[in-house]
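Ticket #4471: complex job returned nothing on first submit. Input attached below:
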Amino acid sequence: MIDIRPPIKATNMKKHHALQHLLKRLQKQPKTLAPFVSLLLILSVTALITPGFLEIKFVNGHLYGSLIDILHRGTPTALVALGMAVVIGTRGIDLSVGAVIAISGAVTAVLTVNTDWPVWIVIACALGSGLVCGLWNGLLVSIFNIQPIVATLILMVAGRGIAQMITEGQIVTFHSTVLNAIGNEFFLAFPIRVWIVLGMIILTIVVMRKTSLGLFIEAVGANVRASRLVGIEARLLVLSAYMFSGFCAALSGIIIAADIRGADANNAGLWLELDAILAVVLAGASLAGGRIYLGLTIIGVLIIQTLTTAILTSGLPVQYNLVVKATIILAVLLIQSPTTRQWLAKRFQSKRGQNAKKEQNSTSSQNHGRADQ
Amino acid sequence: MTPHSNVKDHSRTTSDHSSALLQIRSLSKSFTGVQALNAVSLQVNKGEIHALLGENGAGKSTLIKVLTGVHPRDEGDIQLDGRAIHARDSGHAQQLGISTVYQEVNLIPSMSVTENLTLQQQEKSFGLINWKKADTRARALLARVGLENLDPSRQLDRYSIAIQQLIAIARALSSEAKLLILDEPTASLDASEIKQLFSLMTQLKNQGMGIIFVTHFLDQVYDITDVITVLRNGECVGTFPTASLSRSDLVSHMVGKSLDDLATSSDHQTTGKPQNTLLTMQHVGKQRFLHPLDLTIHAGEIVGVAGLLGSGRTELCELAYGSTKPDQGHITLHPDSSATPAAEPTSLTQKSLRQAIQSGMGYCPEDRKLDGIVAELSIRENMILALQASKGWWRSIAMSEQKKLVDDMIKRLAIKTPDMDKPVGELSGGNQQKVILARWLITHPKLLILDEPTRGIDIGAHHEIIQIMQELCEQGMGLLVASSELEELVMFAHRVVVMKDHHKVAELRGSDVSEQAILHTIAS
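Support reply: We reran it on our side without changes. The output follows.
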């Protein structure tokens, strides 16, 4: 008896230890780990349900497969979410991004069809329209002190109307080799739009982290009174956050218009603001402002896009799509909620107690190791 | 037995039981080990205005909260009109006859006066609100506080704070109150508005109501109250008839020091070297905030700001720093004339905070959590925030330099933390205060303004922070330090500005700086 038991106990303990380690990291840095774990779980479950989901083929120098498709489809949301993350960091929100997508798409289409301007001027005009929209939102929020949700709601409603006025109520289709390339062609094995978004993500992270812009935005979002007392001017920061969000939405609008080779003022980017907000929240950010997680926001976007693609490829009847998507996202959010984490921590508390001695031993041996170095 | 047993002899021994309205006997309450109230006894008679006084943490608000049922009591009993009462919550307390009006008007600004007055108990006909009846009742309530001519259908925020305060009292009186508690009702009122409130209080008193009046303005205590009860550290120091308690006795009861006990002289080191003028405030003031005052601060000098709670200490600090802009006067920051003889003095009066910081100002606010730390951000980020803000976002301090600056500060101020990337919110109060101090030291300020730098931190950190302040002063920095701890203040301050009722009443220097002198000034 005595001979048999110890090995069993040891393996049990080992398992517990691994689980504890994971939980410990989840507790220590839950915000960085949880989105990754969620994405991996969703990917693996989908791979089980849909054979060949993880397959990637290399044809004519292009990569094909569901995973590439997720990246491709996820680009508009990723751009919008990037801007949204910055705005939410300032303790704001931008509901108008969907409408800005429609405006920017309309500007792109109408200028391409009605003028013979070079394509880069057309793109600059579309991006400019996004900046103007962001400036409008920013002025309402930071100068007139209108609550962000209300201030951006105005453009959310009016923006689609403006887009319809630009397209004169029509779906304007266009042909432009450059825009078509942005929409659907490949460069170095990946879709061009994936490269554009990747560049935008890297640029944003570099600007936010290599200058002090990120620090100031987080400080203002987390404690505006303390930030004022150290001399940070919140107004200009908040204004530029909304302009950045408008710029991102406009770029997203160009990609969406380029994809369908036309501008649909009614449907382009419809409800995209909600996916973007969801992605930011999935990344662990709080709508009450503060820490911004740009990289994790992109993981959040991938979670949402993976779900959409996975449900479509799984052969589930179309009418179940929305409910299944919502259920899974709810599950992810519940896992991330502090209440759930506390509950989980309590459940594993007793087991942790049993292994406390072992842990102590391991840490002390680690310390010895360090001392030797 | 107690050091104040002699004090209690002066207190009212003739408790007229026929007119006793509220009787509190040995009431105790503790919060997780902290004894907020320790066997407090208090009697309020009918037709009496009873001042409840005490410094921060004396137990005034706890007493009121236990009385109105917000907190359950641990021990003791409370009798109202001869009946023992146990209020479950403030609504129940109001039904029992205890009505409370708080400092912040507890009404809804966007609703009409009638709606505010009838919110707790609507006039209904057939289950629906009868607005005609509601209006009639609102008018009747308003008449009780002398506001017969006020239009109750208008939105509440159309009226001044004073009127809103009176409306709040009207609502508190709506349930035939016997006892009215006014918790600092005059803090945001001007002189004529206070008069209006006092005449109402007198009127209610004459109707036989008992009033407990909490205030920080000693003049008002002597203007209107009949009896004074002083609390200190959760204990009742005593109850005294207002007419027979001198101001100096009152102040010494409040701060817990008898004037005779205090040494009159203090060993003050006057700095030998010639002092350069650093900051001058000329006739700086703001309406309803701080009465205009003059103040000069020199390099290598600690100027203390003393005064009771609510006397204008914090207001002085805010005006000097510029976080609140004065509506009159000039603030000038002088350059170090020995280093740059030709440099012009800078006028700070209209400058932004960032410009003030760039020219060498720093400020540790009183409320560390609300105005000081950014709890979510790390120690490193919190520390470099002020320097980075003065440089601007585009000139980011290199990470290696940040780490060096922060590491130096953690060592110099002995901040206890495993690493500099820990969120500041997880540190102890003393270490948080050191982080904020470090935030300013990194900017190399010429003048540092500290509001209650030692409040709410443990004894060890307490001494360390005072030591740091003295070192900074020796290095030639000017410091303006507001503190409620007189003992501490006279120890490190070279000069002390005494504040009272939002006025600067004295400036003590050299051998005049003593606890006794400060208390005398406050009491006079």
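The two ends of chain A are 43 Å apart (CA to CA). Closing as resolved unless it happens again.
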